[in-house]
Write the structure tokens for this entry.
Amino acid sequence: MDYKHAGVDIEAGYRSVELIKKHVQGTMRPEVLTNLGGFSGAFSMGAFKNMEKPTLVSGTDGVGTKLKLAFLMDRHNTVGIDCVAMCVNDIACAGGEPLFFLDYIACGKNYPDKIEAIVSGVAEGCRQAGAALIGGETAEMPGFYPQDEYDLAGFAVGVVDEKDIITGKTVKKGDVLLGLASSGVHSNGFSLIRKIFKVDRETLAVYYEELGRTLGEALLVPTKIYVKALRGIKEAGVAIKSCSHITGGGFYENVPRMLPDGIQAVIQKNSYETPAIFHLIAKAGDVNEQMMYNTYNMGIGMVLAVDAADADKAVAAVKAAGETAYIIGEAAEGEKGVRLC
């Protein structure tokens, strides 16, 4: 009896590491001091010594049950982008620049080609965020996960000068709310989706005219990474007063987190076009509007508050960064919360 007969293939692990090296290498930053394969990753903070008070910010998250679709469709090269996005967007919300990322893949059986596909997505997400993929772990756990399934999570660290941390404390009546367009459902609300649709290969392969693709393709579109867009706003000289990443809990849970007491967000639902995937989910599942906005991003992946005088400049900066921004509302006096009109 040996470890391989117990279900853990060490040689497959070695093969996986060799396959992912080329993807990891493309994410490197000059501050990275270690090579892939060590026991830890080292990252120099020397480049940030000129900050008045360099402050580390961190984020950790996973992809959730969206992975079930990847299993059924046998497509594994985009969920890594989701994993990175869920972490680095939270860092960007605090005004931070993502520096490095580590992933964790737990699987029932190590299939090197599948691991490579997953990590290629992680590396692509890191490239979009400007973060280095400095390490990770692939844990083969037979008997704990089914052979063809895995879980994927990650952890990111960024830096921001203390004086530049986005806190929301200065948001006032009349400030403009910007919405950054999402790419679709992103990585939240899939447990509800799996209740609404019979999530099997046949259902996911159905083509919908209004989506312009199959249901599975529409749902598997990776989460937008907003790091470049927020950096562009800052470089344009616009101060982001507060920021909310619209994830699980939708508008009703996430928008109030960006507001000080005595201020509410007034958002105009018709200020942007809601993507067709959300209309399809609501219709197929008979989900009422409030629940949709309490579960999904509804086409807005991030909400920002800026001074009214800076709104047009911020929209232009987002466009220059390759993303789309809408003026979706304003801050008003009232009980902290969000009002959708």
User: Anything to note?
Assistant: The chain has a mean pLDDT of 93. The first helix runs from residue 10 to 25.
